[in-house]
Design goal:
This protein folds into 3 domains: 6-212, Alpha-Beta Complex (Spore Coat Polysaccharide Biosynthesis Protein SpsA, Chain A); 230-294, no CATH class; 320-406, no CATH class. Helix content is 35%, strand content 22%. It contains 11 helices and 17 strands. The longest helix is centred in the middle third of the chain and has 24 residues, at 246-269. It comes from Pseudosulfitobacter pseudonitzschiae.
């Protein structure tokens, strides 16, 4: 069966190094046909244009600090039937688009979201979540790896993560894309709520996974400590005006404000911020809330016809391969991995050391997946703290675990 054309939209601001890695990973997506649309500030544009495959992707300059407006620019340039979104500090698994689009073959599914791996590449940052009428997200029980279709109700709908989601372009046109009133935070939550209000179902797709590096930006540090809560306050004000009855907004804001203050106090107690920063953060939260009350809403403009033709990425010429190495041979193995990448292969390198260290995984800037850890160490939460393995047996077990998501088991 012919696969629907997909446009992958990546918005980037202030993170050119992360964008390079993200784009390198996206070029290894095992899907055809797809295109890549980058919407970035000058530093991001320069980084994308310097990559060897730059001529294959759409690169659009955009220097406003507004992720919703930037995504709408990307949607207007997207010529695919489906528009997928991934953040510039994330890298999707090679099979990401395949799993998302397959879940969207159901007639009533117009939006799909997958799981997000945390910075260590092993544990999950987010799995399936749902939203209540107040915009609060809670974990949703999803068992196994098969997609789950969630029908909206008057009080609850599925939540997709902005760094791992896909929506049919015609539906984005229908609902007006992302609301630029959300400069940062709650942008995809707002879209989820509007799609649910329109009666559309959402698929949660466990196998559609991205690895989220959670890089620093102007509002948070790399360790996820916030540096400014202005936009969070503003976005909550916009959300209240759109979805929460007037008589419930004061109490709702009181709960949000108290939650943010408690978070700031916890960070102070743990030594992550200074005591004076608590007052500053909450003051900025209040200032943002005040501005959000006056922001103009619902002005996202999506063009019916894309402003550029579909720009198909050339499919990879090579296969998928898994390599194993002992820590003592890691340098040689990395050289071999790089050689295979240059030949068009999607490469996973597993480096095992003679200890019980926990495993970590990442997409290497040179273009291959690298997992490191102890021969006897944990690579998932369900494993025992210590288990004795032979080298080849451990490699086979890790290959089997990874191939359930990444593919290439044969």
């Amino acid at each position: 069966m012919t696969q629907p054309p997909v446009s992958v939209v990546i918005v980037s601001r202030g993170r050119p190094d992360a964008l390079r890695v993200c784009l390198t990973g996206c070029m290894q997506l095992l899907y055809d046909p797809f295109e890549i649309v980058v919407v970035a500030d000058p530093a991001g544009v320069a980084a994308a244009q310097a990559l060897p495959f730059a001529k294959q992707i759409k690169i659009i300059g955009f220097d406003d600090a507004n992720i919703s407006a930037a995504r709408n620019v990307g949607i207007n340039a997207a010529a695919g039937e489906i528009v997928a979104f991934v953040d510039d500090d994330a890298v999707p698994e090679p099979t990401w688009l395949t799993h998302l689009t397959q879940a969207m073959q159901h007639n009533d599914v117009v939006v799909a979201g997958g799981y997000v791996r945390a910075r260590n590449g092993i544990s999950y940052q987010w799995k399936g979540r749902s939203l209540d009428a107040l915009g609060d997200a809670v974990d949703m029980p999803v068992t196994g790896l098969e997609p789950v279709v969630v029908q909206p109700t008057p009080t609850r709908c599925a939540k997709t993560e902005g760094t791992n989601m896909a929506v049919r372009r015609d539906v984005l046109l229908e609902v007006g894309g992302f609301d630029p009133a959300y400069h940062y935070f709650l942008d995809e939550t707002d879209l989820n709520m509007r799609l649910a209000k329109a009666g559309y179902a959402c698929a949660i797709v466990p196998r559609a996974q991205v690895h989220h590096g959670f890089a620093a930006n102007k509002l948070r540090r790399a360790d996820r400590v916030p540096t400014d809560l202005f936009d969070i306050g503003a976005s909550w004000a916009v959300f209240q005006r759109k979805f929460i009855p007037q008589d419930k907004r004061r109490d709702h804001w009181r709960v949000i404000r108290m939650s943010e203050r408690r978070r700031a106090v916890r960070l102070m107690v743990s030594g992550h911020i200074e005591p004076r920063a608590v007052t500053g953060l909450i003051s900025r939260l209040d200032q943002g809330y005040g501005q959000g009350i006056a922001r103009r809403m619902g002005e996202g403009h999506i063009t019916q016809t894309p402003n550029a033709p579909f720009k198909r990425i050339a499919p990879l010429s090579g296969a998928m391969s898994y390599l194993a190495a002992r820590r003592s041979n890691a340098a040689k193995a990395r050289t071999e991995a790089l050689h295979r990448v240059k030949n068009g292969e999607v490469v996973t390198l597993i480096i095992l050391s003679p200890n019980a260290l926990y495993h970590q995984a990442r997409f290497h800037p040179d273009g291959y997946w690298e997992q490191r850890g102890g021969l006897f160490g944990k690579s998932s939460r369900c494993q025992s703290l210590l288990k004795f393995w032979r080298f080849n047996d451990r490699f086979s077990a890790e290959k089997k675990r990874l191939s359930a998501i990444r593919g290439g088991s044969d």
